[in-house]
Amino acid sequence: MALDIPRIPSAVPSTILIDRAGRVATVYTAAAPAEDLRSALSALLAEK
User: Fold this and answer.
1) Which residues, other chains included, contact 22 with Cβ-Cβ below 8 Å and sequence gap of 6+?
2) CA dist 31 to 2, 16, 20, Å?
3) What is d(CA 1, CA 34) in angstroms, rounded to the nearest whole number?
4) pTM of the model
5) Would you say 25 and 19 are in contact if contact means Cβ atoms under 8 Å apart?
6) CB count, 10 Å around CB of 18?
7) Do residues 4 and 27 make contact, with C-beta atoms less than 8 angstroms apart?
8) Cα separation of 19 and 36, whole Å?
9) What would you measure as the largest C-alpha separation in the chain, in angstroms?
């Protein structure tokens, strides 16, 4: 399965969140604050 990532992150750390349809939902190319991750993950988990 190939991911459609618009720009492959070269920063470390990098975090890529994938939605239920397999699309890239969010890309963090630096350390992501915990609250940002919680918010983004909650939104993704709430999707049907």
Assistant:
1) 1, 3
2) 25, 12, 23
3) 28
4) 0.70
5) yes
6) 13
7) no
8) 16
9) 31
Give the pair of three-digit tokens for residue 34.
């915990």
Q: How confident is the model at residue 3 (pLDDT cuts 50, 70, 90)?
A: low
Residue that has been written with the tokens 């890239």 in this structure: 24
Question: What are the structure tokens assigned to 9, written together?
Answer: 């992150």
Of the chain, the end-to-end C-alpha distance in Å amounts to: 22
16 forms beta bridges with 27
d(CA 48, CA 44): 9
Tokens read off for 38: 């919680």
Q: How do residues 30-45 score in pLDDT, each as one tens digit?
A: 899 999 999 999 999 9
User: In this structure, what token pair is assigned to residue 39?
Assistant: 């918010």
